């Protein structure tokens, strides 16, 4: 069965397994480079600063516009002085202010009254009146009392200095 001319039976050749370098360890490979995080952190902080700066500029701009426009909350047409007199007991100037809500929503009012001499040359102080909530088209009266006594022989004039209306909560 064996052929005498072929003394050895040949087996198919198998490739040799890859050889390990000296020491039995695979060759050292460098780990992939990590991306640096600090440029992204700086970029994020820069964007945050720009957004905050923009918000500050917008806030200051709107406040400056409000001041330039002379406070948009002024509504002198909503108030009138009904009476102006010197309180007989305390000697303080007193103004009775009538307020009518001419807006379409419930509002609160802060009213400042200036007390002056009849000719307007001497100011005798100021008084304030506050109305907590007034519904649309409602009317009410409120007293504003000054803080400086006026001699009995002097007469006083009352002038509306400011009428501020704010939407009620």
UniProtKB/TrEMBL annotation:
Residues 1-13 have a biased composition (Low complexity). The chain crosses the membrane at residues 40-64. Keywords: Membrane, Transmembrane, Transmembrane helix. Residues 1-33 are annotated as: Disordered. This is Uncharacterized protein. It comes from Parafrankia soli.
């Amino acid at each position: 069965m064996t052929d005498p001319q072929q003394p050895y039976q040949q087996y198919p050749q198998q490739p040799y397994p890859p050889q390990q370098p000296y020491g039995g360890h695979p060759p050292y490979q460098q780990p992939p480079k990590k991306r640096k995080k600090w440029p992204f952190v700086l970029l994020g902080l820069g964007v945050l600063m720009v957004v905050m700066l923009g918000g500050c500029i917008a806030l200051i701009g709107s406040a400056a516009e409000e001041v330039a426009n002379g406070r948009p909350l002024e509504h002198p047409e909503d108030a009138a002085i009904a009476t102006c007199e010197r309180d007989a007991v305390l000697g303080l100037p007193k103004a009775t202010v009538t307020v009518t809500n001419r807006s379409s929503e419930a509002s609160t009012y802060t009213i400042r009254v200036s007390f002056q001499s009849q000719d307007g040359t001497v100011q005798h102080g100021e008084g304030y009146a506050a109305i907590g909530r007034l519904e649309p088209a409602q009317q009410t009266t409120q007293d504003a009392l000054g803080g400086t006594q006026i001699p009995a022989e002097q007469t006083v004039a009352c002038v509306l200095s400011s009428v501020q209306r704010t939407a009620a909560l």
